Amino acid sequence: MPFLPETWQAKVTERLWEWRLRVEQARPAAVYSALSAAALWPLVQVAQSTGRLPVALALGTVVAGVGSNLIAEQLQRGHDQTHLPSEADVAIWITTHITTNADLRQALDTILDHLQVISQARECLQTNDRALRLLPR
């Protein structure tokens, strides 16, 4: 059977349905990790410029315990490396560890709640949606 454009399109459609399922399964973790990374990124920047103490103090005022220590330790590792982490690296680290580390999840939940990250993200998305509706088509 020849590989015609119609066959190609059918194969792409099959793949897209599989892709949609993977995206739907991954979306909550990806969104959570991205929002958490955005919340931690200012701490990464402070750790890189002034060291661990200001980060530990800021973390300690918002969240205490094992999760806070894990975050501070990871930020210190990033500070000690020759290749400084990016915000994407932070999101990858979060994605890797949130499914297996309840203390980290609890610390991130507390940070997201304290900093009102989810409500701010929602507002940003709504503002973006309004702006997109105003664009000429």
Short description:
This protein has 137 residues and is mainly alpha-helical. The chain has helices at residues 5-50, 52-62, 66-80, 87-98, 102-114, 117-134.
Structural class: mainly alpha
In N-to-C order, the SSE pattern is: HHHHHH
- Give average pLDDT, whole number: 83
Distance between the termini: 41 Å
Radius of gyration: 20 Å
What's the domain count?
1
Largest sheet: none
Shape: elongated
β content, as a range?
under 5%
> Could you list the spans in which at least 5 consecutive residues all have pLDDT below 50?
none
Helical content stands at over 70%
* Total DSSP helices: 6
Number of strands: 0
How would you sum up this structure, described in words?
The chain is mostly helical and 137 residues long. It has one domain (31-134). It has six helices and no strands. Helix 2 packs antiparallel against helix 3 (66-80).
Task: State the main characteristics.
mainly alpha
Describe the SSE topology.
Layout: H1 5-50, H2 52-62, H3 66-80, H4 87-98, H5 102-114, H6 117-134
Helix pairs in contact: 1-2, 1-3, 1-4, 2-3, 3-5
